[in-house]
Amino acid sequence: MLTQLGAHVLVINSDLTLIKKKPAREFDLLTYYPLPKIKLDEYKRNGHITNKNDDIADFVTYEIKDYELINEKNEKLQVKESSKAASLQDFALWTYDHVLSSQRGFHVKLDKPFERVKGHITLVFEMPGRITREVRVPIDLSVTDEDPRPDT
Q: Are 11 and 18 in contact (CB under 8 A)?
């Protein structure tokens, strides 16, 4: 699970930035994994999935180990404490490589606006039993960038 999550981290503008294309103070880090067969069967039967917090991904946490982010004015950006929640949020289902997947992630809120942000964030994902996976995510995002996820 952690290998899957760590291998598929995407940097994406927030929904508002994707629409307005104006300077922003936040972006999203998303990752995904294929739905387990039981969840996929439920989706096919009902057209939706009832979240019972029984998926292993419901127990995965993250920590921002370190980061360096710089905007187009060469200003260092600081991640606000509210970005450092421990649990991954459940985002909408999405199709990757023709496979319906669960998206998990979080919003990264910054202390200053950016039109372009570059740098990196190092994340540590953890599952129960202290199983961890560290991943360094390169950041190179402009407010004019399109959604990097494949069309559904």
A: no
**Computed from CA positions of residues 63, 120, 108, 77, in that sequence, does the dihedral angle turn out positive or negative?**
positive
Using CA atoms in the order 39, 32, 56, 125, what is the torsion angle rounded to 10 degrees? 180
DSSP string, 96-119: ETTEEEEEEEEEEEEEEEESEEEE
Helix count and strand count (H, E) for the chain: 3, 8
What residues pair up with 108 in beta bridges, in sequence order? 27
Backbone angles phi, psi at 87, to 5 degrees: -100, 145
Q: Is the pLDDT of residue 46 over 60?
A: yes
| Tens-digit pLDDT profile for residues 129-151 | 999 999 999 999 999 999 999 87
